[in-house]
């Protein structure tokens, strides 16, 4: 993957959005993620370290190896971990499709919001399973943009979300991957697969979710698709501005 075919891009705004997303969703996504003392965990596609910080804090006696293909994101991730004084993470630049580790190196593997961007997520899963020891665990967290609905429903705002999905598909990804995680994981030979759906609900009585999720995570993500969507001719600028959910 290059910065050209990653639909969310590698801008400072996107780095901030990933941090907001991880912070807002921390309890929802991670309340049941804890790795045993002494275990070695691979985090694949760590980006700017937004999930890494949460993982490393929640499992202070586990050791994490966090990899990403994009060097600039890794540098930001390293800074974030050093700033927090966390000593249980090492970073490595690597393509998760060609990991520089021997078979069965890791006790656990964690991957979050990455498979949705890959042309062949099955290949990625096989590459991750190669480095996972027998009896270890693989945790996959992915979204599904088709599961978003609102009141009042707005056809124009819905169109911008579709544009994001179409731009992501044009780059080889699948923003609706959440609904097919079970068959995907089974297709690579896993037979003990447990899916735990997590939902976000926001209204005025939950201002933290309105700000942290609706505005800073979801709307910010859709807004980030304005450039690729217009470049691909999916929508023109005037229609985008009218439709924008902000
Ligand atoms: C949406 S970001 C998610 C980052 C992080 N997991 C999080 O949840 O904040 C996707 C990340 O996957 C990385 N990525 C995509 N393809 C990759 C590959 N083949 N090998 C390693 N990293 C990859 C991207 O560089 C990007 O940092």
Structure description:
The chain has helices at residues 12-30, 50-58, 71-83, 121-130, 155-170, 181-187, 207-223, 226-231, 237-243; strands spanning 40-44, 63-68, 89-93, 106-112, 132-141. The mean pLDDT is 92. Strands 3-2-1-4-5 form a five-stranded parallel β-sheet. The protein is an alpha/beta fold and 246 residues long. α1 (12-30) packs across α7. It has nine helices and five strands; from the N terminus they run αβαβαββαβααααα. It has a domain at 12-146 and 173-201: Rossmann fold (3-Layer(aba) Sandwich), CATH 3.40.50. The protein binds S-adenosylmethionine (SAM).
Please state the structural category.
alpha/beta
Number of strands: 5
CATH topology of the domain at 12-146 and 173-201: Rossmann fold
The small molecules bound here are: S-adenosylmethionine
Instruction: Assign an overall shape.
Output: globular
What is the CATH homologous superfamily assignment of the domain at 12-146 and 173-201? Vaccinia Virus protein VP39
**What's the average pLDDT?**
92
Fraction of helical residues? 40-55%
**Alpha plus pi helix count:** 9
Q: What is the rounded distance between the termini? A: 30 Å
Annotated CATH architecture of the domain at 12-146 and 173-201? 3-Layer(aba) Sandwich
**Uncertain segments of ≥5 residues (pLDDT<50)?**
none
The major β-sheet equals: 5 strands, parallel
**SSE topology string:** HEHEHEEHEHHHHH
Strand content: 5-15%
- Which CATH top level class of the domain at 12-146 and 173-201 fits? Alpha Beta
């Amino acid at each position: 993957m290059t910065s050209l075919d990653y639909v969310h891009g590698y801008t400072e705004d996107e780095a901030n959005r990933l941090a907001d997303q991880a912070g807002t969703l921390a309890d929802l996504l991670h309340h049941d993620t804890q790795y045993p003392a002494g275990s070695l965990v691979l985090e694949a596609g760590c980006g700017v370290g937004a999930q890494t910080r949460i993982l490393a804090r929640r499992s202070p006696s586990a050791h994490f190896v966090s990899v990403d293909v994009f060097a600039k994101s890794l540098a930001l991730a390293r800074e974030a971990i050093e700033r927090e004084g966390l000593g249980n993470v090492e970073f490595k630049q690597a393509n998760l499709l060609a990991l520089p580790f021997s078979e069965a190196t890791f006790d656990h593997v964690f991957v979050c919001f990455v498979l949705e961007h890959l042309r062949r997520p099955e290949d990625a899963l096989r590459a991750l399973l190669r480095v996972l020891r027998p009896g270890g665990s693989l945790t996959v967290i992915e979204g599904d943009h088709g599961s978003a609905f609102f009141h009042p429903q707005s056809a124009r705002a819905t169109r911008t979300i579709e544009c994001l999905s179409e731009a992501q598909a044009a780059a080889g990804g699948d923003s609706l991957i959440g609904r097919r995680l079970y068959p995907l994981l089974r297709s690579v030979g896993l037979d003990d697969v447990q899916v735990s759906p997590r939902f976000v609900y926001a209204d005025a009585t939950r201002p933290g979710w309105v700000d942290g999720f609706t505005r800073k995570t979801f709307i910010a993500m859709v807004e980030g698709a304005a450039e690729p969507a217009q470049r691909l001719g999916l929508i023109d600028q005037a229609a985008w501005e009218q439709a924008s959910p902000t």
